[in-house]
Design a protein that fits this description.
The protein has 4 helices and no strands. The longest helix is centred in the middle third of the chain and has 41 residues. The chain is flat.
């Protein structure tokens, strides 16, 4: 701590190279008012460094992805141009092979789907409650209630119509 009564103990700060600014000393002031002011200024000033960093990362990654997309499209077009004669010459082999593979994959998919449906139905009717059985039960009860309501409404309608058609009956 400097002696405040002795003015010679204060260090004089002078501008460097005829500038008007005075360099700050490396010592920090521990005055409570200055620390409070520093906290207020830092809390009130908006901090855009995180947003700036995010924007910078967005543009860099976007540029890299755009470059990679351009390289991929260019390589695909050049590959098609280079292999187009080979593809045209061997097309009598590729077309039946494509149809055969497509048919096999379709058949396998249909068989798998049929097996899954049969397995689900078996578990449902055995009372094992597979996934989605509660929704099926709810839909079935709604259909049953609606059918009963329509039956009651239509029965009353047709009964009154028959009485009107044959008043003596």
């Amino acid at each position: 701590m400097a002696d405040r009564t002795n003015p010679s103990s204060y260090t004089q700060q002078r501008p460097i190279n005829n500038s008007t600014t005075v360099p700050r000393s490396n010592t920090t002031t521990n005055h409570p008012l200055s620390s409070l002011l520093r906290q207020l200024l830092q809390s009130q000033s908006p901090n855009y460094s995180g947003q700036l960093f995010g924007l910078l990362a967005f543009f860099i990654s976007g540029g890299i992805l755009l470059l990679l997309t351009g390289i991929t499209v260019t390589a695909s077009v050049l590959g098609i141009i280079a292999f187009l004669p080979v593809i045209i010459i061997t097309s009598p082999i590729w077309i039946p092979l494509f149809l055969l593979v497509t048919g096999f994959l379709s058949l396998a998919g249909f068989l798998f789907a049929t097996g899954a449906v049969v397995s689900w139905l078996y578990r449902y009717f055995k009372g094992m409650h597979p996934i989605g059985s509660d929704q099926v039960d709810y839909a079935r009860s709604r259909i049953h209630d609606t059918a009963a309501h329509v039956k009651d409404y239509a029965g009353g309608y047709f009964h009154s119509t028959l009485k009107d058609a044959a008043p003596g009956a």
